[in-house]
Amino acid sequence: MSRTVVIGLGNDYRGDDGAGLATARLLRELGVPVVENGGDPAELMEAWTGAEVAVVIDAACSGEPPGVVRRFRGVASLPHGGASSHALSLADAVELARVLGRMPGELVVYTVEGATFALGAGLSEPVSAAVAALARTIARGLSRSAGAAPPPAGR
């Protein structure tokens, strides 16, 4: 294992659920190679196979104010349960990867708290602002320590 992979999860057609994809696209504009994933667990596992570090960005609906960014490091720290617009939740996909022996060396997950997940809605204003700040934070962290996980994002 010798690489870092950055993966944005989400659904562009479900409002703030597109936060991970939007962050990935901004990172790409900043010169960071990224993978976009619509929530397919098999594609997620394939994207991080062989990676020393996998950085995953996804939307969340945990009751925090919209736009709050949270950082989780490792499988045990991931929130479980709740609804997901993906085929499986991120926590479910991670558990499946763990059972199959397909986990990256290290997993870092950033979540952006959403305001709306309505069909056809775009990103809300607080989520759009959070996505822009998160992309800059991740890009800076990756450029400072090539191959290492980025530093925690501010709230």
Strands of the widest sheet, in order across it, are 2-1-3-5-4
Shape: globular
What are the low-pLDDT stretches, counting only 5+ consecutive residues below 50? Answer: 147-155
Number of helices: 4
Question: Strand portion, in percent?
Answer: 15-25%
Order of helices and strands: EHEHEEHEH
Computed Rg: 14 Å
Major sheet description:
5 strands, mixed
User: Would you count the extended β strands for me?
Assistant: 5
Q: What distance lies between the first and last C-alpha atoms, to the nearest angstrom?
A: 31 Å
| Class by SSE composition | alpha/beta
- Share in helix: 25-40%
Protein name: Hydrogenase maturation protease
Keywords: Aspartyl protease, Hydrolase, Protease
GO molecular function: peptidase activity
Pfam families: HycI (PF01750)
Task: Describe the structure concisely for a colleague.
It contains four helices and five strands, in the order βαβαββαβα.
